[in-house]
Design goal:
Elements lengths: L1 E2 L6 H7 L4 H4 L4 H20 L41 E2 L10 E4 L5 E14 L7 E6 L8 E4 L3 E8 L16 E4 L19 E7 L6 E7 L5 H7 L2 E7 L1 H6 L6 E9 L21 E4 L2 E2 L1 E5 L3 E8 L6 E5 L5 E6 L2 E9 L1 E4 L4 E7 L8 E6 L13 E7 L44 E10 L2 E4 L4 H6 L4 E2 L8 E8 L6 E5 L4 E6 L16 E4 L4 E7 L8 E7 L2 H5 L3 E6 L14 E2 L20
Parallel strand pairs: 2-15, 4-7, 6-11, 12-16, 15-23, 24-27
Antiparallel strand pairs: 1-26, 3-4, 4-5, 7-9, 8-10, 9-34, 10-11, 12-13, 13-14, 16-21, 17-20, 17-22, 18-19, 18-21, 22-23, 24-25, 27-31, 28-30, 28-32, 29-31, 32-33
Length: about 600
C-alpha cells in the first residue's frame, strides 16, 4: 500500500487537503466498537432462548473470521410460530417507480431530471400479525426505483429525516448514499466518511453517461454500513437506452428482484447479530421486501433484474424443475453472448439480468425459484426457498410494455458511450493493454478484515491520502483478487470501474458461464483468485479517490476497505467538495409522485 505524494511529502499532501478530522469522525472508532459489541450482546442474549434448527449448529466451528477466541452464535428469528411468515402465501410486489419533480435541459442541451427522497422511518409487515420498523428512502423498503435515460444527468436530493440515533445502534443516525455502478464524481460517489447527519441534506449529481445497466443506491456510512442497509436503506436504479429497449423485454416483463434476508425479534422488530463481525444470516428470505412471495406471470418471456441486497448471504439461484435461465446482463450492462445456465452464484451487490421463458407453461402451473446456497453460508429451514411463479392466462400487455418472441443468442450494447473521451469497450479489453498489474490479497489479520494487510483505519489516519494505486485517467490495469482468508467468500467491489473477468484459479482458469459481461463486483470464493481487466474511465471529469472493499458489509465495516486515486488525489475532494447542508425545506416540499403501478402480484 502506498501513499502517493503530489508534493514534497505525504504530510504536505495532508495539509493541502482541508479535511477536518473532527467533522469527518463524528462517531469515533472507539464509540462504534462499543456499540457494535453492545449490539452483538443484545442479539446473542435474544438468540440463546430460541429453538434449535435441524442441521444448524449453535456456533460456527472451524471458521476463521470471528473475533479471536470468540464463539459465533447463530441466531434465527425469535418469532412465535403463529407470526412466522409462510413461504409462497404473500403477494409479490414491485417497488414504486419515482418520477422526477423537475425536468429540462442545461444551456449546453444536456437533459436533466431532478429527484428528491427523504430518509425516514416506516413500517413494514414481514411477520404475520406484527409490524417491523424500518429506515427507508421515503420510508419504504426497497426504496423507490429510479429509471433514467442514458445521457440524462440526474440530481438526487437526499434529506436525512431519520431520528437522532439509529435503529440498531445508539449512535447518531448519519447516512452516506452510494449509487453503486455509477461513474460518479468522488464527492457524489458515497465516500464512506462523507456523512449526512439527521436534519441535513445533500444533493447528489449523477452523469448517467454509461451504457444501460442495473445499478442500486444504498447507505455507505463507514463502520455502520451493514446496519444502514439492513435497516432498509437500499433500492434499484436503472439506466436505459435504445439498444437495451430494442433487444430485451420492457415494462411489465422487466422485473426488479431485490433479494435479502432478515431475522426478527419476537415483537417483529429487526434482530441483528453479526457473529463477531463474521456476518449476518437471517432465516427469512425476502424479495422486494416481501417474504417468499408468489408472482403471477403470463406465458411470455420475462426479464428479471436480480440484485442481492443481503448484507452477508450469497445465493445460488435455480428453478425447481431444472429449467434454464438465460443470462443477458451483468453488473455493468448487457452480455455480448447470451448464456444458458441451470443456476448461478451471486453475492452481495452483484446484479445479474436473466430471461425466464414461461411460454411452455399452462395457466395454473407453477415453478419455484430456489436457493441452492454456497459454501460457508448459514442456512435455516426455509432459506432454500426464494419465491414462486404462478402462470396465469395470457392477456394484452400493459401500456409501455414489450415482450420478445424468442431468446436471443447475442446482444449488441452499441458503441461505447465515452469513446470520444478515450473510453474503451470493457469486453474488448486485452491483457496487453494493461500498463500495470496489481494484487489485492483479502485476509484476516489481528482481528480485522484486511486488503494487503491494510484497513480503512489506515486511510483515515493518513488524512485520507493513503492509496492502494494511482492509475491515470483512461489507463488499463490488470488486478488479481486473491482470497487468503480461509473459509470465507468475499464479493469485492471496485468503485468507478467496469471490469472484465479474464481468469480464475478454479473453473479451468476461465470465468464462470454467468460472468460473460462487464462487472464491478467480483466474487472471490474460498481460496479463489480472480483476475480482472479494467479501464479507469472517468468520462469527462479528471478523477480523484475511490474505494475498494468487500461487499459483505460486515467485513467492509471491520475494516476491509482501501482506496485508489485516478490522477491527482487532490482533485474532487470526496468529503469537502460538496458538503451536506442544513435542511430548510419541510418534508412535503418535494411531493413524491410515482408511476402508475402494475396490478398486485404481477
Amino acid at each position: 500500500m502506498t501513499v502517493f505524494p503530489h508534493m514534497a511529502s505525504a504530510n504536505a499532501v495532508a495539509e493541502a487537503i482541508t479535511t477536518s478530522w473532527e467533522d469527518v469522525m463524528a462517531a469515533t472508532r472507539r464509540d462504534v466498537l462499543k456499540l457494535s459489541l453492545l449490539g452483538g450482546a443484545v442479539a446473542a442474549t435474544a438468540s440463546t432462548a430460541g429453538p434449535a434448527i435441524a442441521g444448524v449448529p449453535g456456533s460456527v466451528p472451524g471458521r476463521r473470521g470471528a473475533d479471536d477466541n470468540e464463539t459465533t452464535v447463530v441466531t434465527p428469528s425469535r418469532l412465535a410460530p403463529a407470526n412466522m411468515p409462510v413461504p409462497f402465501t404473500a403477494v409479490f410486489r414491485r417497488p414504486p417507480q419515482l418520477l422526477p419533480y423537475a425536468t429540462g435541459r442545461d444551456r449546453d442541451g444536456t437533459p436533466f431530471a431532478k429527484y428528491a427522497l427523504n430518509q425516514k422511518l416506516g413500517k413494514a409487515q414481514i411477520a404475520r400479525g406484527l409490524s417491523t420498523t424500518l429506515a427507508g428512502y421515503n420510508g419504504v423498503f426497497p426504496g423507490p426505483t429510479i429509471r433514467v435515460q442514458q445521457g440524462t444527468r440526474t440530481e438526487l436530493r437526499i434529506s436525512n429525516r431519520l431520528p437522532a440515533t439509529g435503529l440498531l445502534y445508539p449512535n447518531t443516525f448519519n447516512t452516506v448514499t452510494h449509487l453503486h455502478g455509477s461513474a460518479s464524481l468522488p464527492q457524489y460517489d458515497g465516500y464512506a466518511n462523507d456523512r449526512t447527519a439527521p436534519g441535513r441534506v445533500k444533493n447528489y449529481h449523477y452523469p448517467n453517461w454509461q451504457a444501460a445497466r442495473t445499478l442500486w443506491y444504498h447507505d455507505h456510512n463507514h463502520m455502520l454500513t451493514a446496519q444502514g442497509v439492513y435497516s432498509g436503506l437500499a433500492s434499484t436504479y436503472v439506466i436505459t437506452n435504445e439498444q437495451e429497449r430494442a433487444q430485451l423485454p420492457q415494462g411489465e416483463f422487466d422485473v426488479p428482484i431485490l433479494v435479502s434476508d432478515v431475522m426478527l425479534n419476537a415483537d417483529g422488530s429487526l434482530g441483528y447479530n453479526d457473529n463477531g463481525h463474521a456476518g449476518l444470516w437471517g432465516d427469512i428470505i425476502m424479495v422486494n421486501g416481501v417474504p417468499w412471495p408468489t408472482m403471477k406471470v403470463k406465458p411470455r418471456i420475462y426479464r428479471f433484474r436480480f440484485l442481492v441486497g443481503s448484507i452477508t448471504r450469497s445465493y445460488r439461484f435455480a428453478l425447481s424443475n431444472g429449467d434454464p435461465f438465460h443470462v443477458v446482463g451483468t453488473d455493468a450492462g448487457m452480455t455480448p453472448k447470451v448464456q444458458a445456465v441451470s443456476s448461478w452464484r451471486q453475492g452481495t451487490a452483484e446484479r445479474y439480468e436473466v430471461l425466464i421463458d414461461f411460454r411452455k407453461y399452462k395457466p395454473g402451473q407453477s415453478v419455484e425459484l430456489r436457493n441452492l446456497s454456497n459454501k460457508n453460508n448459514v442456512n435455516f429451514a426455509n432459506t432454500g426457498k426464494v419465491m414462486k411463479f404462478e402462470v396465469v392466462a395470457d392477456s394484452a400487455a400493459q401500456p409501455g410494455s414489450r415482450s420478445i418472441s424468442a431468446i436471443p443468442t447475442t446482444l449488441d450494447p452499441g458503441p461505447h458511450p465515452s469513446r470520444a473521451n478515450g473510453g474503451l469497450d470493457t469486453m474488448a479489453l486485452t491483457p496487453d493493454m494493461a500498463v500495470a498489474k496489481r494484487i489485492l490479497r483479502v485476509q484476516r489479520q489481528g482481528g480485522e478484515w484486511t486488503i494487503n494487510g491494510e484497513t480503512w483505519d489506515d486511510v483515515e489516519k493518513s488524512n485520507f491520502t493513503r492509496c492502494f494505486g494511482n492509475p491515470q485517467r483512461n489507463q488499463v490495469e490488470q488486478w488479481t483478487i486473491v482470497n487468503e482468508s480461509g473459509g470465507w467468500f468475499h464479493p469485492v467491489h471496485i468503485h468507478l470501474i467496469d471490469g472484465k473477468i479474464i481468469g480464475r484459479n478454479t473453473n479451468g482458469g476461465k470465468p464462470f458461464a454467468w460472468e460473460g459481461g462487464p462487472k464491478d463486483v467480483f466474487y472471490a470464493g474460498e481460496d479463489e483468485s480472480v483476475t480482472v481487466l479494467m479501464q479507469f474511465d472517468t468520462g469527462k471529469h479528471v478523477g480523484g479517490r475511490y474505494m475498494v472493499h468487500c461487499h459483505n458489509l460486515v467485513h467492509e465495516d471491520h475494516d476491509m476497505m482501501v482506496q485508489f486515486s485516478v490522477g491527482d488525489l487532490r482533485n474532487n475532494d470526496p468529503i469537502n467538495a460538496d458538503k451536506p447542508v442544513l435542511e430548510t425545506r419541510p418534508e412535503g416540499y418535494y411531493a413524491s409522485k410515482y408511476k402508475l403501478a402494475y396490478p398486485a402480484g404481477t
